[in-house]
Amino acid sequence: MKDFIAGVTALALGVFFIFLCRDIPLLVARGYPGPSFFPLILSVVSIICGVILMIKSIIRLRGSKGFTSVLRITYLIRRFKDREVLNAVRFIVMTVAYIVLIPYLGFLLTSLIYMLLVQVVYGVSTFKALGISVSMVFFIYILFIGILKVVVPEPILGSIVFR
Amino acid sequence: MSLYDALQLALQPNVIFAVIIAEFFGVFIGAMPGLTATMATALLVPFTYFMDPLAGISMIIAMATVAIFSGDIPAVLLKIPGTPASAAQTIDAYQLGRRKPASTLGVDLVCSALGGLTGSLILMFSAPALAEFTSNFSTVEYFWLTLWGLSMAIVISAEEPIKGVLGVVIGFLIASIGIEPVYGYVRFTFGSVELLNGISFIPAMIGFFAIPELLRQISRPHERYSIQLLKGEKVFDLVVVALKKFKTVIVRSALIGTFIGALPGAGADIAAWTSYGVAKRVSKKPEEYGKGSLEGVVAATTANNAAISGAWIPTLVFGIPGDSITAIALGALMAHGLRPGPMLFERYGSLITAFFIIFIIANLLMILIGYLAIKLSTNILRVPRNILVPVIAVFCVIGAYAVNNSIFDVWVMLVLGILGYFMGRLGIPIPSVVLAIILGPMVEFNFITSLIKSDLNPIVFVSRPIAIGLAILTIFTWVLPFIRVRRIRRST
Fold it and tell me: Buried-most residue among A141, B143, B282, B304 (CB within 10 A)?
């Protein structure tokens, strides 16, 4: 199953980059290799890898239950309901929201909310999570902004937050 | 330029302070199962931008040195390797640790330091000589050298070579985004100004090495370990006996570790496995391996720390990273204007010698900090991952942002991190991708430039003796997996 997905991905990647290369010169003056020469070779290698991986996985899975489950959408739904995958997806969603909010609320406030939220969602008590988040934000402020002079994103909503 | 100048540089208070801080950071990350030394390096590198080059690079050296040792702490106490480099000796270390955990870790610590010191001395003497030898290399030699580096990454890091090839292709394609290296043509930017200079290296490294680890950790946020408690024994109880009994094993493992570390793409984990395998083969008591062999632990732990120093040889001399840690460190060197190669040794001789001295200091200091880590190990291992993960994620964001002060880089980190997570699940090796991101533009530049210089004459690639040697080495690397498969088939 893994090889089949890897194969399809490699195939799609190769085709996508060949498509992107259509407007980039393959050869330049006097027939020297142009800017799309290497990407095109790599795209072809990607397609070849993809086809080999797909064929290998089909041969391996043919006749077994695994092969039919590849074709069934229920497989994907079952994978999605898998607790481990769900935990990872929840974390990705919260991190995306965190990055989206940084320019609006500023780095420090958003980080405080993010750390608090992730800890609470994954089972840390609110009080403990709040304590850890506040101390970490304080630590980040002292170390990165105070000592290392790292520039962190400031809020575009003005002075409603301290940074 | 003299050793005295280098010593003066290396012994500056700010540098020593940076080394100590980095060692504590390395101990913590290395001891946490699942968090790797590579991830710690990726997190550390952006902040080294804000320091002077010596302090910054010293932090990376010290952190990696200690993290590889402290990866053995959970191996002894939990039967879980803290970093992949500790996997080879985990079963033996755990079996030994059931009887004497503290003294097993004591032997581990001293052998790690000895391995690291041997590797550092070899690095110190071999790198400048190699650099002088390579000063006459042309684009042709560099083409073969970089191609060989990539080939090694494919052969060594992937369980299936085809997935290694796929990893290299993906890395190459990521590296091809932005301004093309020969003609300055803009490729695959989709009109984005941020992509003109290509994918930022450090955010990409944080993405590839830190985010997948965090996702794996948060997938099982409530997993708890049963920790083997230290039993009030002395940490250095077994050291003298072990050093006397296994002196040959230590020397051999340090040499194996340094050599394997110096091969492009082969890291501390491969060095540990190879050294463990060799030690078992020549051991008088091979039946003890896997059941608590101190010899096995000594062999693997000496080699993995020696490999950390060895990996810097090709990094500093050719600009070809020996492992994923040096791949990231290469980005830090470049950011400080230190371009690896023969010129680096000519222009910054004292600074480079100071790096070598830092290796020695880091390994010596490791004995002290490692001792404290052993004493505090049960507390370190009790930090819950549902607290650790969001904190590290915030560090990832600030690290990715700090390099260019750009939120775009933070998105790059997240997208590549998610990509890295799924690639890991599909068995595509991340180190191959990273090595291709670094070496890809070099291969392309040296290949096209050589062809232009020779007016499209392909003979140019085998026109010089060293180029022929490197070409044979590269082709041999490609053929090696097929020879191995044939031998296995014959033997079965």
Answer: B304
